[in-house]
Specification:
Structural class: mainly alpha
Number of domains: 2
Helix content: over 70%
Number of helices: 19
CATH topology of the largest domain: Growth Hormone, Chain: A
């Protein structure tokens, strides 16, 4: 890709952030709309889980394919196609007549979404090549999650109360259209110098693993748990034998990369479970409407918004260790208030829990992304970014599945919503502690040495990297 002016790079960053905004806004606004959707479509707890998880499941299954395809045929081309499909899926979701159709259209929406975030991150990685500038750009990227968390509940609540839950999907259309026009005008085409070969068997195994695991948790079906185990075994045996696998297991020789994957899964599992439980509590137990529920969650959204760019600057200047340690501590502390002290029942504890959890989540995004891509060759930026994005979506899928299953089991027994939600909050607390532990273990001098060795080994085995190093055309 040719060198761009500073102004052009900032425009490209803004366009990429718009794609993250439209996807994140959809998710956060939808959470507030779930009780209204349940009443209108007569959905069950499991049905609400699938409305969320059908999207994240398809997204997680296709992210790595989208990243490698973009590196092969062109990042702008795949990115623009994703915007079109996401807008089409949003329109179809707004017209869904029943729960089953909405779930199916959410899957269409996810196919488009899978082409947005990892490809946008690959574009950013190849646009901002200097490490400090890249870290700052990723910090801005991460702050968009905070914007969506701040705006999503309010926008979603306002739309649900004034127009209806279907309007939550309408808001995606003008944003996606504007992003499409700007992409075609300003984003230069780029691709890896040597296209990676498709891996259909690996793609099938990834899809089977995630789908069967999610179904097993939501529907408590041991048969599908067995299918997930078989798919995982197949991945571990098949992928190392391929010259260009869908999932390059050599990436995991880098402790920071492996840590980033673990942290992404745990952090987003915590977020998915936390939002799912709180949204239902505020509207179904406290009796708040969608807009009031969104206003109650502003402390969580606001702290995420404020601290995401701070995390980007910290990561760029001091590395990922400090923001990860602070993130894990704050997320665990915030969810512990709900697990051990029933923070839902006390406004002061509720506010404190939201601020702590939002602080932790605001700090965690930038170091995840920066760590995942910084030690990898630029020729594989799309794949590395897609693995990190897949980890996020997998975590959110599992978080909603696990906490929802625990909630459904608890509601079947006497004791009420607060008692039924407590096991789910303990899971969220454990996820926060896992972020803390993984951040401590995978960010020290030993971990950095493993990243350096892994990058050298990947470069030595990658003809494209060797060609670029010797004066070949860069990605």
């Amino acid at each position: 890709m040719p060198e761009l002016t500073r102004r052009r790079r900032l425009v490209v960053l803004a366009i990429c952030c718009t794609s993250l905004l439209v996807v994140s806004l959809d998710n956060t606004a939808l959470n507030v709309a779930l009780p209204s959707i349940r009443r209108d479509l007569d959905a069950s707890v499991a049905g609400m889980q699938w409305i969320v998880d059908a999207y994240t499941l398809v997204l997680a299954s296709l992210l790595m394919l989208a990243g490698s395809t973009a590196d092969r045929i062109g990042r702008r081309k795949v990115f623009a196609t994703g915007l079109v499909l996401f807008a089409l899926g949003s329109l179809l979701c707004s017209l869904a007549p029943d729960q089953e159709t909405l779930i199916a259209f959410r899957m269409v929406q996810a196919v488009g979404g899978s082409m947005l975030n990892p490809v946008a991150m690959s574009i950013i990685t190849n646009t901002f090549t200097e490490p400090a500038a890249r870290a700052r750009a990723i910090g801005v990227w991460g702050s968009v999650v905070g914007v969506s968390m701040a705006a999503g509940p309010l926008v979603g609540g306002l739309l649900v109360e004034t127009v209806g839950w279907r309007a939550v999907f309408w808001v995606n259309l003008p944003v996606a259209l504007a992003a499409l026009v700007l992409t075609l005008r300003y984003v230069p085409e780029s691709r890896a110098p040597r296209p990676r070969r498709p891996d259909p068997v690996g793609q099938l195994l990834v899809t089977a693993l995630l789908a069967s695991l999610t179904y097993a948790i939501i529907e408590t079906d041991p048969l599908f748990a067995g299918i997930a185990a078989v798919a995982l075994t197949g991945l571990l045996l098949y992928e190392p034998r391929r010259r260009e696998p869908l999932i390059d297991l050599r990436f995991f020789r880098s402790a920071p990369f492996g840590g980033a994957v673990v942290i992404a899964v745990c952090a987003f599992a915590a977020l998915g479970g936390f939002l799912f439980l709180n949204t239902l509590y505020l509207q179904d137990v406290r009796g708040l409407n969608a807009l009031e529920a969104g206003l109650h969650m502003l402390p969580l959204a606001g702290t995420t918004f404020l601290l995401a760019p701070v995390s980007g600057r910290l990561t760029g200047s001091r590395g990922p260790r400090l923001p990860l340690l602070l993130a894990g501590t704050a997320m665990a502390a915030g969810s512990l208030l709900f697990a051990a002290f029933e923070a839902e029942t006390d406004d002061v504890l509720l506010f404190t829990g939201y601020v702590l959890f939002g602080t932790g989540f605001g700090l965690v995004n930038a170091p995840i992304t920066n760590t995942a891509v910084s030690g990898m060759p630029r020729t594989q930026a799309g794949v590395a970014a897609a693995v990190a994005s897949t980890s996020r979506q997998t975590g959110q899928t599992l978080g909603v599945a696990v906490t929802g299953a625990l909630l459904a089991a608890g509601l079947a027994s006497p004791g009420g919503f607060v008692a039924a939600a407590r096991p789910g909050y303990w899971v969220v607390t454990a996820c926060g502690l896992a972020v803390l532990l993984a951040g401590a273990v995978t960010t020290g001098p030993w971990a950095r040495r493993t990243a350096e060795r892994t990058a050298r080994a990947l470069d030595a085995e990658d003809p494209a990297a060797q060609a670029a190093a010797s004066g070949g055309r860069p990605a």
